[in-house]
Every structure is written in C-alpha cells, then in structure tokens.
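Protein modeling request. Please complete all fields; requests missing the sequence field cannot be processed.
Requester role: graduate student
Desired output: 3D structure, token encoding
Chains: 1
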Amino acid sequence: MSDSRLDDLAETARNRGLKLVRSRVRTPNKRSFGKVGLTEKSGKPVFGMDAKGPNASPDDVEDYLRNLGARDWGASLDVAVLPRKRPKPKRQAANDSEPEPKRTRPPPPPPAPPKPKLKIRDAKPADAARLAELIHELGHEISEKQLRKNLPALKRSGETPLVATLDKKVVGVCGVGRRIVIHRPAPLGRITALVVSKEAQGHGIGRILVEAAEEWMRRKGCQLVEVTSNDRRAQAHAFYRHLGYERSSIRFFKKL
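Delivered output (256 residues):
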C-alpha cells in the first residue's frame, strides 16, 4: 500500500478520535508486514491489534472507519431531525389500586482488578530461589546456593542478569554478557539464558526482556548480539526469528 493511502487512513482515524498504528516490520512476507490497527489516543486497542501489535489489513481498517463514520452520521441524524417524544404519564385511576412495585436497579458489577504492572530490573541475591525455579524450566540444573554465589560475581563483572516482575513477583530472567573477541572490531553481546514462567507466557514478556538486553548491549558498545538455543527448542527458534535474529552457525561444546 502507498504511503499516501496510509496517510489518508491516519487522517480519517484522527477525525474519529482514533490513532492509526502501523507495523514496524519492513521485510516482505513477514507476518506483520504491511499490517495496521487502531487505538484510542490513550493507546487502548480498538481494532486490528493484539499483544504483538497491528494485525489487520489497511482494507479492513478502512471498512471499519467507514462503518464507524456511518454510525456516527446516523446517530447525529436521529438526534437532530427525529427527536424522540417523551411518553405522557398515565393518569391515576379513580378507585384505589395497588401501587406498582418500584423497580430497583441491580447493583453495578465490582470494578475489575487492576492489571499487574510489568517491571524490568537487575537481578538481586534475594531472587536466587525464584531464579533457580525458572532456570530449571529451561532445562538447566542449578541450586539456589550456587545462584547466590553467581549473582555477586556477575555484578562485579558488570553482567548482572535482567529480571521481569509482575507486581514484584519474578516471572522471567535474561542473562546478558559482553566480551571482546579477536576477530571483531567491537565487543560482542550475548544473551546467555532467557526464560519466562509458563503462567506468564503469551504476553510479550520475552520480547520485552530481549529488547532490554539489546539496549544494555548498545550502552556497552556492542554492535552484534548472539544467542544459542538447544536444537529441540523449536518454539524458541521461531521466537528469535520473529525478533529478527538469523541462524548463522552450529555450536559445539565439550565438558572439562
């Protein structure tokens, strides 16, 4: 779709009090390439949006805005030209009659609980027990005691892992590293481990952790980031590809 048409859609959305959100994906054949969606000015999704961003075609958004405009026009016509007449009150009968029971409105539903707030911060020794549980989900065996030793050492080297919390509960962790290698002109950044608890998956927390790790590496002067993932973790491979990572090598290791 041409930029001029997208600009026209954006203008139409603004006239409806909405905002047109465009996909940031610039690679054809990607899932979100060319997708758009609508939100309120506050950012609340209205149409064509999910947790990963815009997912509607420009034609679908155009149809939605056109129908929305028709509803708005019809509503204004109903008010301006065809005002509703108030019904006349019924006269009380001459003879005594039983009064009609008063209709009581049902109580309003209780307000929905507030959504838990997501926060990214540095890991602390007090997180050791929870981090051990998460790393076990990743398939690595490590004790809480060993984690309590590793965290101060990582802090001294400037490579403290990042954790994601929901209402102060740790739900994800991302290990970060920076090293200078002989064959590259700038430091190499590395995601050493990434896991989000099963109950918190599907809400974009993994993507937010990766973005925070990439920003950490940029501040450290890194120009390239690498990550390894076990051959059997097909979902993880798809996740990294979705974030723009490419497979470039085969990893070998040997226990010492």
